[in-house]
Amino acid sequence: MDETFRMSGREHQADLEREAQKRRLAAVVGTAPIAPGTALPLRERRRLLFLLRRSQNIGKEVDSKMRRLVMIAALLGAVASVAATGAPAEGVSPAQLAQAGWSCFLPPPFNPNVHCAPPGQLEGVVSGKAAAATFLAFGTDDLTSENAPFLGTERLIRGDLFHGQPCPTDPPSYQYSWLYPRFGWDYYICHTFDSPW
């Protein structure tokens, strides 16, 4: 008989602790206490724990967001200053790209800038099999230059895939140029710099 009373005493104590916990959580959330004898569903318990943790981290979140904004602003400033100097792209030169397997070439005389294409892309454009390609342009006519100013990139798209879309980075016309009259390639090109044609 003593065991029966001891069990009911433990159960009663456990009930009191559960009710006290419910009231504490309800105070945090701002809702009325839950009736004694009802258990919180798992989903509700997770929601309450989330709200409790969130209320403890509100100041930390604001500091974290401010740090992120400052870091983004600093990175954008650094990128803008590098872009404004006209420095070579990460120190890359036509000679280094050629050593890495890129195809560097000098277009006809109307364009005196060395162009480099990643491995296989120039061949894909010449054969007409590449859907698109990207070339890097350098302000030099020396294919072996170790220190040539990086002018920008050229994005090419095959003629059957081109649908008259504008090129927002190619002044002054802001339009793609057709390469067929110059090279015999049915590709349209968009520059990220003011190209000579």
Kindly report the average pLDDT value.
76
Weakly predicted, low-confidence segments: 81-89
What's the story with the biggest beta sheet? 6 strands, antiparallel
Helix vs. strand class: alpha+beta
What's the number of helices? 6
What overall geometry do the principal axes of the alpha carbons give?
A: elongated
Number of strands: 6
What is the H/E string? HHHHEEHEEEHE
Q: Strand portion, in percent?
A: 15-25%
Count of the separate structural domains: 2
What strand line-up does the widest sheet have?
Answer: 1-2-3-4-6-5
How is the secondary structure organized here?
Elements: H1 2-29, H2 42-56, H3 58-85, H4 94-99, E1 103-105, E2 114-117, H5 121-127, E3 132-138, E4 150-158, E5 177-178, H6 180-183, E6 187-191
Antiparallel strand pairs: 1-2, 2-3, 3-4, 4-6, 5-6
Helix pairs in contact: 1-2
Quick tags:
197 residues, six-stranded antiparallel β-sheet, alpha+beta, 45% helix
Structure, explained:
It contains six helices and six strands, in the order ααααββαβββαβ. The chain has 197 residues and is α+β, with helices and mostly antiparallel strands. It has two domains: 2-85; 90-191, no CATH class. Strands 1-2-3-4-6-5 form a six-stranded antiparallel β-sheet. The longest helix is centred in the N-terminal third of the chain and has 28 residues, at 2-29. It is elongated, with a radius of gyration of 33 Å.
What's this model, at a glance?
The protein has about 200 residues and is α+β, with helices and mostly antiparallel strands. The protein folds into two domains: about 1-85; about 90-190, no CATH class.
